[in-house]
Design a protein that fits this description.
Blueprint lengths: L5 H22 L3 H33 L3 H4 L5 H17 L5 H35 L7 H11 L7 H15 L6 H13 L4 H14 L2 H10 L7
Helix pairs in contact: 1-2, 1-5, 1-7, 1-8, 2-4, 4-5, 7-8, 7-9
């Protein structure tokens, strides 16, 4: 079963996977590698935050008597932006010490991981409740249309966003699932939110981003080569 809103939750898992790549660069003392990984990760985070702030949070808030606003989620990205900005500045500076970079990265990472947990604790119970309000309740197609109309417009580069998330999930899997399941859930959910023309642009990017055998296995169990 395709779950369009699983894209939001599983992007969190891709972010956690990408942080592992950043961790490896920090542990190796490889600032150049950290800068490269973090730059890509921040591009993903910025798109994901736009989806939340402009689409997903307002939608959930409207379906839950303001639960998102009451729990402070509309302000949760402000501190993250400050911390990521500080780290980005150090990574670009020619005279920044490795110790300063490590401290800035540790501060950003700690805040970001906690903010993911807070979002999940509030949002995850609300999505099934929202789905039950549909007629018929939980209809995958209607959920896909809702995601397409309310959330997807805020992704500035959908093929890149899809390819990046799938690349990371294909490498690391998720907290609870292996690479095959984690990647399948993400891409199959997105398929249900895309028009045929959007999917025509997304699918080749995803195919290029993940191992051919993994793509084949996903295509066997989820008809991702069909139009969006």
């Amino acid at each position: 079963k395709a779950l369009a809103f699983a894209v939001m939750r599983n992007t969190h898992e891709a972010i956690r996977g990408a942080i592992k790549d950043c961790d490896a660069a920090v542990e190796a003392g490889d600032v150049k590698s950290l800068s490269s990984h973090f730059q890509e990760l921040q591009k993903c985070v910025e798109m994901h935050a736009a989806m939340e702030d402009k689409g997903f949070f307002p939608l959930l808030d409207s379906k839950s008597d303001g639960a998102v606003k009451k729990n402070g989620l509309f302000e949760i990205h402000h501190e993250d932006e400050k911390l990521s900005g500080a780290l980005t500045g150090l990574l670009k500076a020619e005279d920044a010490s490795e110790e300063a970079i490590k401290e800035a990265y540790a501060a950003w990472k700690a805040y970001h991981l906690e903010h993911l947990k807070k979002e999940e604790s509030i949002m995850m119970p609300l999505v099934p409740k929202m789905a039950k309000q549909l007629n018929p309740p939980g209809d995958s197609l209607q959920m896909g249309i809702l995601f397409h109309e309310k959330v997807l417009p805020y992704v500035s580069d959908l093929p890149w966003f899809a390819a990046y998330n799938c690349k990371i999930l294909a490498k690391h899997g998720s907290t609870k699932h292996d690479a095959l399941t984690a990647t399948r859930v993400w891409i199959h959910g997105l398929q249900y939110a895309c028009t045929a023309s959007q999917w025509e642009a997304v699918l080749p990017a995803v195919r290029k981003a993940i191992p051919a055998e993994l793509f084949r296995k996903i295509a066997e169990v989820a008809n991702i080569e069909a139009p969006g």
